[in-house]
Records
---
Amino acid sequence: MASLSQPASEPNTSPLAKFIWGPENLQRRCDLLKELPQHAIFKNEVNLAALSRRDHWAYRVQQAQALIGIWLKKGWSRDHFLDANRMIGEMPCSPQFRIFFKNIQAQMSPEQKAFWIPKVERFEILGCYAQTEVGHGSNLRGIETSATFDSTTDEFILESPTVSSSKIWIGALGAWATHAIVVSRLIVNGHDHGNHLFMVQVRDLKTHDVLPGITIYEQRDKTLNTLRGLDNGVMRFFGHRIPRSQMFAGSSSLSRDGTYNPPINKNHSYTSMVIIRGLLSSELGLDAMKALYIAAHYVAFRRQFGANPGGMETRVIDYASVKNRLFPAIAREVAIILNGRQITAAIEERLGTNMEDMHIMSVGGKVYASEHAARDVEIARLLCGGHGTHESAGLGRSYTLLSAARTYEGDSYVISLQLGRAITKCWQRGGEDTLPALGYLRRLRKPTAYQQRLRQDESQAWHDRAVQDDVLEQRVSILAGQFLEDTRKGKDTSFQVLELTMAHTDLHYVRGLYSALESSPEEGKMALKALANLFTISTLVNGLSTFAGSDYLSYNDIRSMKEAYQTALVEFEPHVPCILGAFAFTPWETRSSLCPVDKSPYDAIVGHAMGSELNDNRFMRPTILNIRSLWKNQQESRL
Amino acid sequence: MASLSQPASEPNTSPLAKFIWGPENLQRRCDLLKELPQHAIFKNEVNLAALSRRDHWAYRVQQAQALIGIWLKKGWSRDHFLDANRMIGEMPCSPQFRIFFKNIQAQMSPEQKAFWIPKVERFEILGCYAQTEVGHGSNLRGIETSATFDSTTDEFILESPTVSSSKIWIGALGAWATHAIVVSRLIVNGHDHGNHLFMVQVRDLKTHDVLPGITIYEQRDKTLNTLRGLDNGVMRFFGHRIPRSQMFAGSSSLSRDGTYNPPINKNHSYTSMVIIRGLLSSELGLDAMKALYIAAHYVAFRRQFGANPGGMETRVIDYASVKNRLFPAIAREVAIILNGRQITAAIEERLGTNMEDMHIMSVGGKVYASEHAARDVEIARLLCGGHGTHESAGLGRSYTLLSAARTYEGDSYVISLQLGRAITKCWQRGGEDTLPALGYLRRLRKPTAYQQRLRQDESQAWHDRAVQDDVLEQRVSILAGQFLEDTRKGKDTSFQVLELTMAHTDLHYVRGLYSALESSPEEGKMALKALANLFTISTLVNGLSTFAGSDYLSYNDIRSMKEAYQTALVEFEPHVPCILGAFAFTPWETRSSLCPVDKSPYDAIVGHAMGSELNDNRFMRPTILNIRSLWKNQQESRL
Ligand SMILES: Cc1cc2nc3c(=O)[nH]c(=O)nc-3n(C[C@H](O)[C@H](O)[C@H](O)COP(=O)(O)OP(=O)(O)OC[C@H]3O[C@@H](n4cnc5c(N)ncnc54)[C@H](O)[C@@H]3O)c2cc1C
Ligand SMILES: Cc1cc2nc3c(=O)[nH]c(=O)nc-3n(C[C@H](O)[C@H](O)[C@H](O)COP(=O)(O)OP(=O)(O)OC[C@H]3O[C@@H](n4cnc5c(N)ncnc54)[C@H](O)[C@@H]3O)c2cc1C
């Protein structure tokens, strides 16, 4: 794998790269890479990790200023802005076109959009999305903030009656935002109509002071420095008033006389969630892939133990311990990226129609991407040994982002419950024949037809798509069967639903990957086939515990499956440079001392140390000298 | 579990607490808790996370100054100092009594000890341990730094010939240390005698300037803020000279005339590693337990979904998703703490004798503790939903420490190779009958005697120690068998050794836990029995994939095993307050907004936000106002 030793210095625009990134995404990436690195503020020279929280945030605001200026000047798309944001790292402007804009787009009336969207697109107002409260995150029905209609003034009065009703975790609210989309119960004439969205100005547009009737505190640091450049905020309302026109009126609305017009379909309430989870499904994969890209180049460079002919030690990428962690992770993240993008596209196509199946799909995608991404980045770091633990390796930054993603936009266990519910519903009404995603439930109607031994003594059999699919279906049907049985018995199934969701998504991601491959360019077909095969067999091997005690797989099956897995690893190995070469993250994107282009990683690591803010430690020397003589005081006082 | 709602405000000194902490450890902890929180610098008021790297480090130096002063004054033991260090968090003085002192104690000659130990114990000199190089961490044979004997002056000349020979990752070397124990090849008359230890002064004792012939750079931030208060350093030697007397002469030595006296037994070379890994085996468990303690109290307070009689929502601790993560993790970490302490004690007892089996034991303990601790802390964080992601929750701090522990003092895969080697050796010489730790290899001599079906249809059977032990032995013997077969075939087994090491340790930790229980106080016997049972059955369930395709466990076995697991969870549940109560971490130790004693977590979280360094954001308002008007420039320039 000689070509791995040299990371890319520019983006790759080959047909394979277009296929992997998506042609428009790649074009946007090229646009951004041409422009952004030229600007001093984006030059990666400031060591953000060493700054205080205050200075860090201020620097991120300055980066936001520069980015918004460039974006306006270039007339780029909103997607350009989103991508730039992801490349640069979290800034207070991050929520603007994600959760703020997307909710406006999905849930305001046409007139409201005409009024608000231009302001949002010009950054004339700065937005955030205020849903979570101190007491309620997962259970939105428990939200306590109320918006009571006052028909005398045609206004809503916002109240946060308790500490637990304080809005919290609101990204960009702490110091940056002028406006918040507030999720609040709508109260009309003493009647509670449940949660609705309201556009609420929170700071004065001239002075940036928090408006009267509102208190806002910034939340301080998040763990592991997660999203340090973002000012999450805590907010309470004390009789704050907003005009009636600021209730989102895309589906339900309130007339001047207090008549409530309920939504025609209930879709709207989760549309924006579906969109964001869809986005995350592929985005998180790209972040994890960047970490694996860095690690792959470093382990191809690093040598340790085992002298080879010529006296050089063995490259660590050649050890089983490294291959068995790195290669399946690469395959998995490519599967996540390609499937995630299919989910995003499907959601966009279906906007406005019945989206219940998209809802389930986006849950699977988000849970799968976040659970695997956090672990795969940790794998990347561990692969690099001690040097993976340098901040300058660039692996920790991804970890904080990806690990938190297991919680935000819905805790993995909590949102997996939705797949459980879909399965129960489908099973009860016998819907599996018309709902292809849950077709595997058929196996539960005729269990005996499927429980015979597979008998794939030859490892070659495991490379057969039909055999692979059979095992994947069998596994998820076993888990679904246990789930349905436990549900019937009234047991709490909230633990097992996560494994069920992962197995369900394993099956669909394998299928989705193979179907995506059909439109792949000739150039990369071999590589992608080897990748898909490895991804598939690795999901089989990782899912084996489900088959303990089952007759379905025999001892010989397992032996041959594990052999097939090793073959798939070996077959994928020569294609690794081709796959990583298609990603071709530039040094500006990786910001990693472990894969520099113009020097060796060792020079980069030592060079980085030469800039340490503690190299001049004269300011602490008097203290250190004092410490070294403390024992004398002790001896004197004993005399 | 009502009593869980109130975390402890003082340490518990009941017989159970003594048993769990160890009586001396608990006494030391009480001594420290009485003294340290009184001092302003240890009052937990400074928000370290918000500081710049430089200020953070400086604050840690000041804490070190205070701690050393108190320690000298009180005349406390070295163990007191180590424990205080762990409570306060990493400071530059952390290596002094760990790796610095312990190497001196284990590897210097009596005369050398008489000279150096008093200086170390007085903090007259400040130490660090310099082994790892840029190019070599795991493979110590590859170390390039050389100490060449110059008989004309009776000195060694230290050289770092290349960038890759730079010492790196050396904790406390970056700015703090005056002395380093340097691992270097010994060269005498052109003959390379391999690695030896040398005491090297690196900074001037009057000015704290780095000495001529040496360069030192501080390494800058570590990922995820890991050990931010520690100044890890990179060091090179350019013909730096030290007297011959500074070669560690506890086992091998060099005479004035250049005669090399090789070590009599090779034990010495790994003694200090064994000691430190032994220490880590239990320490890491305590850190993870602290995180679980915080999470347990929070999930007993937090309510979400599912109204109960009286209208209150369900406590999240009552969900299967929470119980199935939290309770086994608590049981596991107690098992780790108790077994780890047994390892530490066994090592101390055996110092100076043949320690090969201690070596293997300490590898198992360190790998097991670090792999589980990192995951269990992540579980703790995820259990707490969004609020677990506040820095003030106190969970991230443990994670950074524990996740890095998978790498430092030996990468998990690399050091697991040593168990693999021991197994191969034992198998080849038929030693399993005399080496109880590897007794399970007997099963491989007569496989048919063990492969019959277990047939434990009744879940009650799984609570039987003999049945439990049989499955644990069977599992590790299957893995050992595959390992030996692959080794015989010349395959690279470096991936599978980690699973083998974990299974080996599962078996021994279950046994160790039950044997520890024999001396437990009456008071906690029931609780500890329920805990041991849960730990055991959870290791069985988590190890099921090994049995896929095997006749050993039937479908009914698995079903009854999973039932037994749920029973074990239910039986452990009422004892959770008792176990956590024995740990009784004080608020000063947890430093967590999620388990305060004098207010509700919600008040603590919001209160914490009120102190944010970004609440006064006037300094950035001009920039924000400018951003909001950037679009106007754009419009103007278009006119
Ligand atoms: C970095 C970050 C950024 C965020 N940004 C925003 C933002 O901009 N705007 C916004 O509105 N919110 C935001 N949030 C909030 C986030 O969406 C919520 O924290 C998240 O949805 C989790 O909800 P929770 O905190 O209530 O978890 P909880 O529900 O309290 O979870 C606690 C535990 O209970 C378990 N649990 C809960 N319910 C059940 C059940 N029914 N069955 C079984 N187990 C259960 C969970 O698995 C979890 O282990 C952010 C959060 C983070 C961490
Ligand atoms: C926070 C921290 C503090 C530290 N403090 C100190 C200190 O005070 N003093 C000091 O001297 N050192 C210190 N170290 C260094 C530490 O001990 C080493 O980094 C660690 O032992 C790992 O070695 P490595 O970096 O060479 O890993 P590598 O060996 O380079 O590991 C890279 C990858 O290769 C794999 N690998 C390597 N060899 C094999 C093999 N034979 N078979 C299969 N796979 C293999 C590993 O599994 C890993 O995935 C510290 C490190 C850290 C992170």
---
Amino acid sequence: MIFSLLKDRDAQFFIMYASSKNANFRYATKFWIPDPAFYMIGDDGTELLVVSEMEKRRAEKESRVREIASLNDLGFYEKIKEGKNAKDALTETYIELLKTHHARKILVPDDFPAFLYEKLAQNFDVEVVENPYADMRKVKTPEEIEHIKDVSNAIIGAFQFFLKLLEKERDSETLRNSVEAHLYERGYLAQDTIIAGKASSAYPHDIGHGRVEGHVIFDIFPGSKKTGYHSDFTRTVVIEKNQEIEDMLKACIEAKNTAISMVKEGINGEDIHFRVCDILESYGYRTTRQKSREGFIHSTGHGVGLEVHEKPRIFDGGEELKAGMVITVEPGLYYEKVGGVRVEDTVVVKKSGSEILTKFEDYVRLGR
Amino acid sequence: MIFSLLKDRDAQFFIMYASSKNANFRYATKFWIPDPAFYMIGDDGTELLVVSEMEKRRAEKESRVREIASLNDLGFYEKIKEGKNAKDALTETYIELLKTHHARKILVPDDFPAFLYEKLAQNFDVEVVENPYADMRKVKTPEEIEHIKDVSNAIIGAFQFFLKLLEKERDSETLRNSVEAHLYERGYLAQDTIIAGKASSAYPHDIGHGRVEGHVIFDIFPGSKKTGYHSDFTRTVVIEKNQEIEDMLKACIEAKNTAISMVKEGINGEDIHFRVCDILESYGYRTTRQKSREGFIHSTGHGVGLEVHEKPRIFDGGEELKAGMVITVEPGLYYEKVGGVRVEDTVVVKKSGSEILTKFEDYVRLGR
């Protein structure tokens, strides 16, 4: 994919400057590094990872990239000694490196930092492209799917733990801390877990505050501390009877399950999204197609992997699904006066169907 | 600070495009948003935050920025309907927005994404600058200091918990997981906590592996899950008697306390660093001034806040301290054959002195 992109754009190198918090960088290098490092891959198969002196030995041991250089190896400290500031010394080091490799045209990803882009563009023909690794990450290997399964199982355990807690504890913050600590102890990092009672639930990204009443959206998307892979799961737990909420929830459950039954290789994500809209509209709810500010106001889903949100989009302008993709299906309905509901599963796309990784009953009522 | 920068560079706007994982964006907007959003501030005081439709109401409620627009408000969706891809629609929306505001020259920070930089540079004069918010973040408000105090107290609790554990548990990974889980349950996220026994302790960034023996560096820098603020603390715990280590530790304790006694408004960070070097050199240890690879090989400290490492540097080329800054003081000594030691406190700079936020005895011996 990278080689055809380089050929296509008549470029010699694709480069990234990022830390491993950047999923594409981590995927490309298979290396965990907390500070930004430089990665280049050439049309002739050359690959080089440049790290600080301190990280060099570890990179040689742990990274997939075979050729490792330290900034020192490339003359960075000589420039510092000449009195240059760190940023100028850094950009000059990389420019010299690329010149040594006879680069004329270079591709950089969308999120490449401006300070380096600006200097490279003064020396080379630089084109900004969508990161090809983001496309390569869409279809998962069996090993990656195992990682996502592993987190999915931890999620189901955490949800069961949450349901027990909810019988006696109703403070959002306490619930969130307890659930996240439960996962953390087991090796999973969950952040911004949504535990949103009636009042908070009308806003899809409100993580929830204060006392949980009426019903609660539980939306969790932890990553494994070891592998970095995520999974994503939502259930709405009904605490007190409320016909409006139950009707909304039933419509979302029907939409989710119909959508999941459509998932297989070859179907377009947009068709799944529009089917979800059809179902919700048939019950009188408004959707993204009416550009409403209430109702179903987000996409049906997204890919999941090293990032919680990654390609493909299950939305307007979606793409054809391929076996091995891992996606979420998550219809929701939000009304300021009533509150919000959402149900979500993470599923693997297969040749002729799909596999749900986050199996749990859809309708959850407290105390049943 | 931003207005003078804009005036200085003859620019009309400073803009950021980032999520709240970016400390400067979070600081500027006082808003937590997981996906990238657009922030602009003008030389006339105009301020605007552009978010997705879904985040608009929450942004209006929670963000410090008064004027909020959604992408839809600015015509994004019309461009999508015309068949433009999301990225082109996005960049065009922002370019039109800036033109409406009569922008001619725009400042962007170092880490501004290349895809947007490239398009803006085709329409405006764009200059890459160090993010002015990074300078504004240096002096903390009383509220920010309270947040850092809160984490500092949690750290002291975690260290006491660690000391008890250490009496029966000596595996670095187990100790790290237990301490980090202890904090997580209480609402604090500690990552890469250094629990480094004799063998690992010689490398300042080695988090420690295997069995802890001889002595152990405990270095922790959690952030509050709620506020995002960090604190930073290190103690070296002596497990077995070792004269070389104890001598190094005593020198570091003296250097730390002398340095802290110098901290007050008006002193330069460089003077503090050089005083630390003086003391360590007086005991025969090598320091950064000799460019040695052993001895005192890092800076004396750094600012702490929304990031663990932020401005100011307490090092060569440091700057004058101001009341309200929160900094670390952390002399350490590292010798490959002997191991390393370090002691560190986080302190608030005051008009005529300082306040230590991480109060704990300096010399810690196991079992005392």
---
Amino acid sequence: MSTSPHPLDQAIQLHAQGEDLYQGRLTPAYANMVGPFGGAIAAVVLNAVLQHPQRLGEPVALTVNFAGPIADADFEIRARPARTNRSTQHWSIELIQAGETAILASAMTAERRETWSDQELACPDVAPASEVPITPVSGFTPWVDNYEMRFIDGMLTFRPADARDDSQSRLWIRDQPPRALDFLSLTALADVFFPRVFLRRQQPCPAGTVSMTLYFHAGSAELAACGTEPLLACARAQVLHNGFADQTAELWSADGRLLASSQQLVYYKA
Amino acid sequence: MSTSPHPLDQAIQLHAQGEDLYQGRLTPAYANMVGPFGGAIAAVVLNAVLQHPQRLGEPVALTVNFAGPIADADFEIRARPARTNRSTQHWSIELIQAGETAILASAMTAERRETWSDQELACPDVAPASEVPITPVSGFTPWVDNYEMRFIDGMLTFRPADARDDSQSRLWIRDQPPRALDFLSLTALADVFFPRVFLRRQQPCPAGTVSMTLYFHAGSAELAACGTEPLLACARAQVLHNGFADQTAELWSADGRLLASSQQLVYYKA
């Protein structure tokens, strides 16, 4: 039985350096084609908020702007509670490397109270994870090896004949090795979708997320209750226009609860 | 013929105070039940970026975190280009009143190039604005008098018998008096939807937007070409959970182009 931390926790580990200041370095395990996997970047940014001694409540919203490249080297994260209210708190976060802002982020934390609730969006009616074979994805880019993916539809093949006029992807996914769900792993999972422009054209082109916003619709106990079960991850573009495409996405628990929803803007050069 | 500026331009007027610093004050015309209309706040925040002498390109993304109340008094906006790349720029923006952060925002501007583009989401098939009667909304809250609204569905009545199990609203809308479309008026229009929890329950409760992200899918020339024609505005919640509801929304031109898409997180106490 291994006692070393999960690869995700190794990657997003932070060391407090003083008030509002943390030092970190993502690991090669979460490398992407250029720089680190955006989901790991978003998770390490959120981790600074989660570790901050002044944090109030749990994350409800996170916006990460990918302002510049991140090299395989140390960086600093400055996380500052810009405003603290009675039950909510707003965070300003900046990841700085070699003196330059690489990530500009904001987060909101809140103490939730149980109240009238309703899920309007219906969970997609798909086969359970146990009935969907694991999709071989190794070799695409390093970070994918940290995930077990079971594509239902919208898999990237880079065969032009597979180009379609819609960019929906739906897959069951979990950390590999499995890791109990929490805000950090959920944040990383929200960015596992290949750029929709790849899927539309089934050919590679320069592309990358420039901004991502994530809303959390569950508390820590609800996430913990998901354990290591795969989540259903769904994404599609609404419009791809002159170099910028959007992407809306949802992450569902195995029992059909919408745990998180997100919106991304993705640069592309087609 | 009047030569005074449009009420929106009066409301979001800014005075440069020095490097990265602007002074402003929203007008009573854009007041909401508590504080100013969030759409006017988002527009004045974007205006600081648009007026900044170092701006590169046009807005592609805007996130506005409503951190605290704004009083009917002067405020300062600090807008700083945190990172400037070859064709993109990332902005950190803060609205400060009486020494406290009331708004924490980020924006991205970019020089777009014409390239392969496609609109995946289909424009809703609804009657044209000319065939939908103007909905009387005056009296709800002051800011609504600045808009001409033509509801197709999802109008707020506050009659409990009208409570439904979905929160979709679709309406044709434009500034009143009419104003040629640009990034500023489009930004304000993205926040014209009443909290979805009101519509679900058709009863008032404490509620307000805490975070809004807006992506622009058109350039300034494309917006100008819309002139003063009404836009089709559509919104719905996906989930309302323990005090926080999301809202996804789209703004369409009369000829069916997706001009902007947005995501909001809305606090509610039900």
---
Amino acid sequence: MTTALKSIKSLAPLLDRVLVQRIKAQTKTAGGIFLPESAVKELNEAKVLAVGPGGFDKDGKRMTPSVAPGDKVLIPQYGGSPIKVGEEEYSLFRDHELLAKINE
Amino acid sequence: MTTALKSIKSLAPLLDRVLVQRIKAQTKTAGGIFLPESAVKELNEAKVLAVGPGGFDKDGKRMTPSVAPGDKVLIPQYGGSPIKVGEEEYSLFRDHELLAKINE
Amino acid sequence: MTTALKSIKSLAPLLDRVLVQRIKAQTKTAGGIFLPESAVKELNEAKVLAVGPGGFDKDGKRMTPSVAPGDKVLIPQYGGSPIKVGEEEYSLFRDHELLAKINE
Amino acid sequence: MTTALKSIKSLAPLLDRVLVQRIKAQTKTAGGIFLPESAVKELNEAKVLAVGPGGFDKDGKRMTPSVAPGDKVLIPQYGGSPIKVGEEEYSLFRDHELLAKINE
Amino acid sequence: MTTALKSIKSLAPLLDRVLVQRIKAQTKTAGGIFLPESAVKELNEAKVLAVGPGGFDKDGKRMTPSVAPGDKVLIPQYGGSPIKVGEEEYSLFRDHELLAKINE
Amino acid sequence: MTTALKSIKSLAPLLDRVLVQRIKAQTKTAGGIFLPESAVKELNEAKVLAVGPGGFDKDGKRMTPSVAPGDKVLIPQYGGSPIKVGEEEYSLFRDHELLAKINE
Amino acid sequence: MTTALKSIKSLAPLLDRVLVQRIKAQTKTAGGIFLPESAVKELNEAKVLAVGPGGFDKDGKRMTPSVAPGDKVLIPQYGGSPIKVGEEEYSLFRDHELLAKINE
């Protein structure tokens, strides 16, 4: 999706949506040699940038999201709404679509 | 959809529907040079014009909508009901289809 | 659908159904000149003629319909059950399918 | 569906089912002239012959049907289970599929 | 489905299932003349042989089935699980799939 | 599905799953004559070997399964998860998929 | 899915997700002879490495997962989200997708 946003920080996800940015794969080996582009795979890891207030359960109560800004998460292979701000790409997932937290 | 409305202001969305107008992309560069039409992309940002009273939860209580008139929102790539009033185009979305609020 | 009804007034919608009649587009310009037929578009505006008693929520309580006879409404592009009485055409929609009220 | 029923009166619909018989279109004009068969359209009006005790809501309580034997109703264009008893044809609809009552 | 059952009586339907046997169409006319096989249609009438204890509603309570052994019922044109015991054929339907009771 | 299980007894079904083994059709006639393989049909009867603790209803309470180990049951023509342990084949069904108990 | 994880231990499944690793089939016979690769079948047995805190029931309460880290489980033939960490492969299943516990 195309936006004219100046900064991704102006985006506040609604309901149970979670704004993430995919973590870029390293393009150099540990020894500092640049990898050929075909060897750089897109990772399914992402950093949580912003989290909506939570969706509603069937009694109209907010459900607390499972993640918080700053969390590193495992995202599914498919799905999510892509957003482009300048040259950077982001995605919006629903809270329950995120697979796992990554603790480091 | 075609209407004979004199003004979009006469439209009061029902239930959880939200009336928005897509924000037009700039057709000039910052320096004032006109962009060729092919370089002007349709934005997924929209301004909320009117909001329905909210849908019903399963106990028959109204659910408060997540947005209010005047809000700027990120709309999904597909979906929504297009409405034409005069030369202007508008869309109706359901509250939960809106992706994020845009704070400026 | 074909009926042998003498008058549309004999039709009492059941549950959450709403009987509407599409508003006919003007076939003359403001200045009184007749528009060619190809320029007359079918409008998505309709007048509510009759409203059912409301559907049931999951606890068996009637849900009050959102519109009332006499209301002008925006109807969706597709859907509804068409009914023909004499030369006139009407439609039955479910309450939640109606998009917006039109206030004049 | 084929039955060996002697009379349609022996049929007691179960749950929310409603037994109706389509009203036959007139095959003569008001002036008594017979219409050619191609001009006789099948009507979407039907007479209610029998009504089941009502389906169950999610708490196991019976939901009162919207129609009663003797009612004239508008039936949908498609759907319903056709039943043939002798030369006569009948249909079973679910209560919520009936569109409107016809008051005369 | 193929079984090695000695008697259909050993079958006790589970939950909301109902065991029925289709009533065979008469192969003779009232006057005793045998009908050609092509004129003998399969009937949608069946006799209830056994009824399960009932399915559960959403609160875990058993829902009383609508029919009892010995009832004659109208079965839908399609559906049901066929069972063969010796040369005889039977069917298992879910309670809510049965269309009507036949009172004689 | 392939397993390295030493014994099927080590398998404890989860939630509402039921472990069954299909009953083998007789390959001899009552008089002791071997049937040609083409005449031996796969039966839809199975013996219950193990039963899960039951699924959860919508209030989070366990629902008691309908069958117990040792029960003989009628299984549906299609469905179930096949499991192979050594040369023997077993299946896992969900409790509600089983059609009937077989009482002998 | 591709990750840059250093260790699978840094993965904490969300909601009702369960992280498992498939048990490798033996590549030698009991007598110590190596099996040809075509004779080594992928097993549907897996070891549970980590378990999410549980999904929510419809009243917003956590549902206790059926398995715990260290459990050996039977996994379905299809489904699950594959994850690769270094040369090792893992899968994420939802709790209710696991078929059985394997007790040894």
